[in-house]
Amino acid sequence: MTTTNQLQSNQNNESGQHNIQELTQMVTEQSRWISPLKSELARVVVGQQGLVDRLLAALLVNGHVLLEGVPGLAKTLALKSLSTLIDGAFQRIQFTPDMLPADIVGTEMFNPQTATFETKKGVVFANFVLADEINRAPAKVQSALLEAMQERQVTIGDDSYLLPEPFLVMATQNPIEQEGTYPLPEAQVDRFMMKVVVDYPSIEEERLILDTAATTEPLPKLAPVVSLDQIVNARRLVNSLYMDDKVRDYIVALVYATRDPERYGLNLKPYIRNGVSPRATIALTLASKANAFLNGRGYVTPQDVKTIAKEVMCHRVGITYEADAEGVTSEQIITTILNEVPVP
To answer: Which pLDDT does position 182 carry in this prediction?
Structure first.
């Protein structure tokens, strides 16, 4: 009986390895566009490799990205260039305090010639939407955009309209100004798959920016290198990437450590008001698969999870007043969890 079980186990292992090899081969074939896309993007966007990788990861798993950083760090340029390289429709929304939801989703307009109402679709009907300084818009406008992000459709009058696929929203927040802003509620921030803090470029990158961008000449023109259909096909493949049960358990352990840190021997309870939601579990799983795809693998490793975990989890952890008083941030909490929770 033992010999039979061992034979079956060996056969299952061989079958699993064979499937992983097939998946890796498929990933290699369907991800050929990544390298030329990054090369073309580097012609106009200096550095910000982390930002580019997070945007691609969100695109591959149907997520959205919230960016936080001071003006002038190429956030708008990165998304606009990405939409050009993927041959998608791009729209930029500059949020202001006097905006209305109809400015985002559209409205019905009366046509006196036909005596009928006609639908005028809003700027949200695009593949790539840049919501610039989303915290400057009032709550109703923010809710209209976030509803469109969640439902992938908008309702104008009595009719509902599906948004195009793929559909990626990149919203930005300016952290240095507070006047005239409407901070996103924590429950709404949770709807973003990732929050990426965009930092200043390195001194070498700053010099390269000076050498290449300090000119009145227009930026190099970009041409599409990948179609929307290829992106949709890549999404299907990302969903089927192999993830071992140990990696799945590791994701659950990271999530649960934000809710019950004492279970893992972490003295973080006084600093955590609320842990991450189950939406974080789903987002971390999908984003880890996307990271594996971007690295040309048909399987997910614990390092994929650790690479993407901060962007997925930090904005979902609520910190206490005690943590705020002691200068303990959600980034520090997640870093401690990543360092202390055993890696399979």
So the answer is: 63
Residue 105, phi then psi, degrees to nearest 5: -95, -25
Sheet holding 65-68, edge to edge: 90-94, 128-132, 168-173, 65-68, 194-197
Position 17 scores a pLDDT of 52
* Separation CA 107–CA 102 (nearest Å): 5
Which 3 state secondary structure label does DSSP give 233?
A: helix
pLDDT tens-digit map of 141-162: 888 888 888 888 888 877 788 8
Query: What is the identity of the amino acid at 282?
Result: I
Q: pLDDT digits over 309-318, tens only?
A: 999 999 889 8
Apex 42 CA angle, 40 and 43, nearest 5: 70
For domain 242-340, give the CATH number.
Answer: 1.10.8.80
Q: What's the pTM?
A: 0.84
CATH code 1.10.8.80 region(s) in the chain: 242-340
Q: Name the superfamily (CATH) of residues 34-213.
A: P-loop containing nucleotide triphosphate hydrolases (3.40.50.300)
Could you please report the per-residue DSSP string of 132-151?
A: ETGGGS-HHHHHHHHHHHHH
